[in-house]
Amino acid sequence: MARVDLTVMGGGIFGLSCAWEATRRGARIRVIERHGIGAGSSGGLVGALAPHVPENWNAKKQFQLESLLMAPDWWAEIAATGGVDAGYLRSGRLQPVPDDRALANARARVDEARALWQHHADWRVIPATGAAWEPHSPTGWLIHDTLTARLSPRRAAEALVAALRARGAVIDIGDHTPDGPTLWATGHQGLMDLNARFGQPVGVGVKGQALLLQHDARDLPQLFADALHIVPHADGTTAIGSTSENTWSDPAATDAQLDDILTRARAALPVLREAPVIDRWAGIRPRARTRAPMLGAWPDRAGHYIANGGFKIGFGMAPKVAQTMADLILDGRDTIPAAFRVEANLQARGR
Predict the structure, then answer these.
(1) Which CATH number fits the domain that encloses residue 165?
(2) Pfam families annotated for this entry (predicted)?
């Protein structure tokens, strides 16, 4: 095959997004995915692109904000290029306010959100109306943020693949060997390989389980209730997730913990009680030691780079991660926040 400018190892959200951004800048790209597109945690169901609470601002929250604000145009260009829509919508989110203390905190964040989110979105405290698509609120008040968005994870991967191929990128499935500059975006297994390579833990896997219901609320906001994300999708389904499990016997098996999620979701939102379950999913999500995405050059391995650790926020962070890694690899411009750097996940630098 013709020589490429960059090989991307991994067909999950970070790998495909970084490959897409590189093609936008004219690079010749090869993506190698050993198992299948979205075979890891990027093949899930939920797709909640939710911001952190607008307080105690830091570099991670700023990075996420910039990524969420990039997302509408970013996903629209991908859809226009490849002809596949990821189901992106800035749908907003409702969550109940459980008690008076939480209500006071929520109201205090209204002005803070306006300033920190730079007037691009609102954090509101609104009265509950008792509508069918509202979780019960003990105080009678709901938080409504207008920054939260959604997409279909599997559809997003399909959209990226279609756009990459339309731009001439090569996508190989199977056990292929990279050549030349290489970005490693290999998810949970990649973190385990890095642990062995560095001789210390730089990340772990956390199992998640989620399910999909046949319930059409496609134009309604997401809900966050009883620690669950309830996410309507463009195809007339609603996703519910997810668990966070540090121990497991079978990484791909669903079990009673997912049944508990379904029970809690139906209790929080009675309109879902008769909605049939049409899919169940389990997988291992990569969590870097700092809990932020792990980005940057691979220490002591010239020409190799790492993008990993998108635990729970990978799809929301993807546009900015892709931009940041393309800046580094293609343009030699390093804008990676200190907490995101590969070295930040090492207990002793330089190993």
Answers:
(1) 3.50.50.60
(2) DAO
